[in-house]
Amino acid sequence: xxxxxxxxxxxxxxxxxxxxxxxxxxxxxxxxxxxxxxxxxxxxxxxxxxxxxxxxxxxxxxxxxxxxxxxxxxxxxxxxxxxxxxxxxxxxxxxxxxxxxxxxxxxxxxxxxxxxxxxxxxxxxxxxxxxxxxxxxxxxxxxxxxxxxxxxxxxxxxxxxxxxxxxxxxxxxxxxxxxxxxxxxxxxxxxxxxxxxxxxxxxxxxxxxxxxxxxxxxxxxxxxxxxxxxxxxxxxxxxxxxxxxxxxxxxxxxxxxxxxxxxxxxxxxxxxxxxxxxxxxxxxxxxxxxxxxxxxxxxxxxxxxxxxxxxxxxxxxxxxxxxxxxxxxxxxxxxxxxxxxxxxxxxxxxxxxxxxxxxxxxxxxxxxxxxxxxxxxxxxxxxxxxxxxxxxxxxxxxxxxxxxxxxxxxxxxxxxxxxxxxxxxxxxxxxxxxxxxxxxxxxxxxxxxxxxxxxxxxxxxxxxxxxxxxxxxxxxxxxxxxxxxxxxxxxxxxxxxxxxxxxxxxxxxxxxxxxxxxxxxxxxxxxxxxxxxxxxxxxxxxxxxxxxxxxxxxxxxxxxxxxxxxxxxxxxxxxxxxxxxxxxxxxxxxxxxxxxxxxxxxxxxxxxxxxxxxxxxxxxxxxxxxxxxxxxxxxxxxxxxxxxxxxxxxxxxxxxxxxxxxxxxxxxxxxxxxxxxxxxxxxxxxxxxxxxxxxxxxxxxxxxxxxxxxxxxxxxxxxxxxxxxxxxxxxxxxxxxxxxxxxxxxxxxxxxxxxxxxxxxxxxxxxxxxxxxxxxxxxxxxxxxxxxxxxxxxxxxxxxxxxxxxxxxxxxxxxxxxxxxxxxxxxxxxxxxxxxxxxxxxxxxxxxxxxxxxxxxxxxxxxxxxxxxxxxxxxxxxxxxxxxxxxxxxxxxxxxxxxxxxxxxxxxxxxxxxxxxxxxxxxxxxxxxxxxxxxxxxxxxxxxxxxxxxxxxxxxxxxxxxxxxxxxxxxxxxxxxxxxxxxxxxxxxxxxxxxxxxxxxxxxxxxxxxxxxxxxxxxxxxxxxxxxxxxxxxxxxxxxxxxxxxxxxxxxxxxxxxxxxxxxxxxxxxxxxxxxxxxxxxxxxxxxxxxxxxxxxxxxxxxxxxxxxxxxxxxxxxxxxxxxxxxxxxxxxxxxxxxxxxxxxxxxxxxxxxxxxxxxxxxxxxxxxxxxxxxxxxxxxxxxxxxxxxxxxxxxxxxxxxxxxxxxxxxxxxxxxxxxxxxxxxxxxxxxxxxxxxxxxxxxxxxxxxxxxxxxxxxxxxxx
Length: 1264
Prior knowledge:
By secondary structure, the protein is of the alpha/beta class.
């Protein structure tokens, strides 16, 4: 599969280090059935099956064939397995070993079991799945499913198969030579089991719990495994052969399998080396044994009996080199775990000769060095997240870190600078890039400083609070300003489960002033539509600053989270209210969730203090995957360290670049596709053959469709595992990239991971790939594509349209669990935020705690009972919506008291008549009116519609109660007793309305208090259940891809940290195409930029990997024929940046610009620019803006430049962009680049920014 990814998505990690979880049942009935597993309750009744006598392990193993060398140098151990059993065969014979209480009865059964494990490998055509777009077709889906099901059964923590593997690992007698009847053959059982553990489908499986369970066997049995390995390999080395007499095994297989197994174990279980002291000893011996074996097998004649001894010298050298790299990676992991790569800051460095200015900078950094953790001044860390090892640093800043008054440790990003890790190491490079990328997160020290200030004079925070939110601009001493948005009036509404983020908090806050508060709901929605890609965007970083009432800064807490609401949610909220916005936020820690739950339970906002939302100016979810990857990936697993690590010398000019690792000595690129199909030419290139390389270069330069510089770049890329191609403007960078993809795809080099700087650039490349017929095996990851053709290849579309599999059914079950949990969480939160307890909860509490009052409440006087029955069908309004009125509602509001309340007694006759009418109307409209009867005639039993005004209220009521055998109207209770007395009154109907409400409030508070702990327990239970279901769903739906090639388009604009995180271990070829002399990567923190005159030479965070490598002397091909600019324009860059740039004949005689005397013209004037004011760092120039407007109109009047894109205006400042657009908007249709438009959001004129974003789509009509 040629995987094509946008920049903002990190490449898939082939392994993830996770904490081992407790074993859980993970298999499903459908997958199990394929391999013969029965349900637990059925297995005991089934008779034990015996292994078939016809199934035996092979007497010998096929020797290694040099023609298949690419299998043996693969990153995994699959290539060594000789077993070819089909899934059906494995299905039939695995059954006896996965039943309850099954055991191996003979060693022969162990060999059979090992053969079944060994058959599940990617080179077995019966099992192989093509992990490309074809894998979504039905046949390949079946194969993929079989692999996943088999692994889920073998590695089921609760299954029997995993115990069978343990039986082999813990066998009491394992031998590699002179195997006796009681001995287990190392070559026929032990090695295949280790080979399965290190195979592609195990290592790259997304079922992390199962993978950890398998490697947990090594962890549990490692001391015995160590003894077996040392004893058996030592015996083989002494015998100068890894054959046991019946099986022919190569040392290449032994060392590759063992080193891969140990590497995976050590990287998954971080304490493996420390927990097992024998680990380091074993690895040291492994290095010695492999070196001895390599020397012996490569000598002439070979002094070691080995299947590869007869290979060619180049083949053996190639295989041995790849084996040594694998063992070196393992050795580095052990070194790092033992701390041997760490060094104290006072250790000296090797002397390197540098220029005086560079040495002066390094000397200055040496004097001011203040390292992390214990390297900090005084030996004490700055805060709880100031650690030496980045793998232990929390990606999300802690509260102590955010509020720390001492600045963070920011390492210098230059060779030779003082650092707590050694130079030329990948550990140091990862440390530098991780810390600088993480520094993009917001600091709160400025806000806290404002809170500590006295009330006068007013601080910036006071001003923002007064106007209900705004832009906070922090001017830090010695550094540049940092701006972030603040929102006030935060209130909590509820919490709910979210499929992607876990738990999300529903909250509301004040709408910021300006167009967001427009009277028109449509305009408010349009405003958030326009700024939604920069403000309150889904995945954006938010901080909740919680200030307790009357509290010092010591009581302040800060919680970070991300926005889970999408743009549609934001628009709906804006339409509903002009003053308040609602948002969903998922916090990273459990503390704010519990605190918010407590606040929802207590419902006392005044006691919660002040709550503010602070929005960081970054898309946190876009950098979080890179940070997670950088901190979790073992440095030794990152390829190409020989080139990309920080070398103290700062010089790569003398480094020899090897061919890509997938290029074996016999491999040849077929280059026929680079020639015109009308005049085909057969041409191949063998990267390891200098004559072949030179011949291919000459032929491509002379006869291919590439120009000479493009031909040179093509050859250089195909022969170098790390390649740089510089393309000045118009020289065909994209064309060369497409042709390079053509060669790689036609030669079967895949998967290819493509990173582009923008979504538009990525879609453009994919379009070319599809249009030119290179391949249709494309998966487009990342944001949705605006291109209709490319949209068909997005992962979302492919997954939706592919055939449904059994894995999908399993995923659906886990998804259903999540949905069920979400519903239960919603029901729980409804109870938590409800103004009233549930009716049943209320009754239960009264029945248990106040039985006499409860009995009185249920058994009111008969007249009240009759009155209540007349109102049973009435509804009560509440915040949760209308609900049926209960007897508790009837009692609390005093409906019975209202019924017997007379009209005003001191009214005049006319007023009395009016009052009677009002009373009658009131009685008609309230419950209970139907009990009043006007006429007791025998022939009319119905209630009259209303008493006539002539009837006296007293007469009417007296008659009514007389019918109920009451001599008088009941008295209205008017007492006002305190709560302690009310609790002793059994007759609740004798209480006044105020007493009833006082007692009811007490009951409600008691119920809430008693429910608090159970609600919290249920909250934790549901949260855990949802998290487990979400993890299981993710494990099932995740797809693992191991790209072989990483191609980066516009590499000069991509951060080095992003490329490092994308360099998964499977990458064997890195191609960077771009121009380091053009735009650099965009970063938010100017302090880290190379353009910063104070710190630019120190941090260099926006220096791309391409720029750094080329500046250090790594060879870089340059395209030198431009086809875009007229020669006069090309001279501007030819005389300054690209002295070898040539003009293609296509641009040497272009037509002149209509209406202009000169085609290239510079206007020099003396009209000063204006500053944007204190709140803006931008500038404007009115004279230039008006000149641009007039010039644009003049060009349009020429009648030639009327199409969209014919006229382009470039502005150096955001303020000038807004001004020019405003002047042109009344005359012509304008199109603003989205990347420019979103940056205007933080510009002082937010109204203009919103308008620009709203109008940034292409317009058809133009006005002159």
